[in-house]
Amino acid sequence: MSHEKRTSADFFKQVFGRTVNVKLHNRTEYIGVLAALDGNMNLVLEQCEEYLEQKLINKYGQILLRGNNVLYISAKFNQKQQQEEEV
Questions:
Q1: pTM score, whole prediction
Q2: How far is CA 62 from the centre of its chain?
């Protein structure tokens, strides 16, 4: 892991086009591919699944999540993906 100073823009460049987990303030979670993002943190996810209390609620081809509802965004990478990003 690098100790360089990173910004949120660096994070979004790294996860754009990859699967992310987005949790909203109401505890709903969405897992999908990050397709778009704007300055207000509005997100578009593709191939998205909606979960509540770890139970699958619905599946969407594409969904827009309003940025002010987002609690956090996380991404999981395997070691190979992390090494590719560092090169």
A1: 0.79
A2: 13
